[in-house]
Amino acid sequence: MAGWNMLYFDEGRFQPDAGQNDAWNRGAYLAEGIAHCGACHTPRNSLGAEEKDRLYAGGEGEGWHAPALNGSSPAAVPWTEAALHDYLAQGYAEHHGVAAGPMRQVVRNLEQVDETDVSALATYVASLTGAPKDGAADAAIADARSKTYSILTAYQMDADGPAANGEAIFAGTCASCHMDGGTQPYVRPVDLALSSVVTGPDPRNLVHIIMDGVHPRPGERGAIMPGFGNVLDDGEVTRLANYVRDHFTDEPAWADVEKTVGDIRGEETAQ
Ligand code: HEC
Ligand code: HEC
What does the radius of gyration of the chain's CA atoms come to, in whole angstroms? Predict the structure, then answer.
């Protein structure tokens, strides 16, 4: 996608909502008209058109899943306006994690935009998600902590153990950075149970991250996660992704993980 300043948008077609304040209207105008948030976050029908009655119900872009931003958001800790502002301005929000994949480029584009516009986008997107329920965030954070803490048991387990075994792969490959007091004290990724990469309905983002890692630009917030695509074979990535989903969430298992892994491997080999 080229810089937004090169995109044409007819401001006259935007209908402000008189029931909302200026920031909300500015945010809606930016999201729908210029930043094209819905191009990825709104599902498309079989003809490829955005389904206007399912705005921001979750879609895709560049082979990644773009999570729902409306009431069906998979975020364990409900998004707030402040958290959305952090995420859009810095590519990272506490209790949510990092903007990876194509969302990283969106955040880069937003660096060119006025601070008040980023705030307006946060105001608008927060209204889509709806008001967080009291106590929901605290409960999710406590639950995520206990799931991260319980990796310690996995870490001590027998690599030939019963699940043969995504848990053993996690213990050997991921836990050093993703468990409490891991061996890398300066790296503190979000508890995986809080990341929409893990709680979302689609395994693609996790598979991309396992294979390619997370690579901020110099100067960008965030530490590097190496990719493991050359270390783990497709069966191992599949078992690992299934384990992460099972251990860190109470959501149903993902369908077709093995096929997803094969498809993503295929795309990468083709590049
Ligand atoms: C090119 C496709 C694309 C566009 C355009 C896009 N997004 Fe995203 N967005 C994604 C993907 C993919 C993710 C998941 C990234 C990840 O988990 O690291 C994401 C994640 C997010 C999240 C985090 C959701 C969660 O629960 O973790 C928010 C909030 C978000 N986008 C808001 C926006 C807004 C606001 C815009 C418009 C300014 C926008 N996005 C434009 C693809 C896109
Ligand atoms: C060398 C340390 C390291 C290792 C090993 C590692 N990671 Fe990461 N991981 C990170 C860092 C650093 C981030 C990004 C943190 C940030 O910027 O917030 C990250 C981010 C992630 C995310 C995205 C979380 C979010 O912010 O939404 C997932 C999912 C993830 N890692 C899973 C894994 C899995 C599965 C493994 C094992 C294959 C693994 N990681 C191995 C350091 C590591």
Answer: 19
Q: Do 176 and 182 meet the contact criterion of CB atoms below 8 Å apart?
A: yes
Question: Is the distance from CB of 105 to CB of 217 less than 8 angstroms?
Answer: no
What residues line ligand 2, using a CB cutoff of 6 Å? 92, 97-98, 173-174, 176-178, 184, 187, 189-190, 192, 195, 197-198, 206, 209-210, 214, 222-223, 225-226, 228, 240, 244
Task: Express each pLDDT in 220-255 by its tens digit.
Answer: 666 789 999 999 999 999 999 999 999 999 999 999
Q: Write the single-letter amino acid at 198.
A: V
- What whole-number distance in Å separates Cα of residue 76 and Cα of residue 96? 8
**Tens digits of residue pLDDT in 105-124:** 999 999 999 999 999 999 99
Amino acid at 122: A
Sign of CA dihedral 19, 21, 24, 30: positive
Judge if the beta carbon of residue 213 lies within 6 A of ligand 1. Answer: no
Report the C-alpha gap between 145 and 73 in whole angstroms: 21
Separation between Cα atoms, residue 121 and residue 25, nearest integer Å: 9
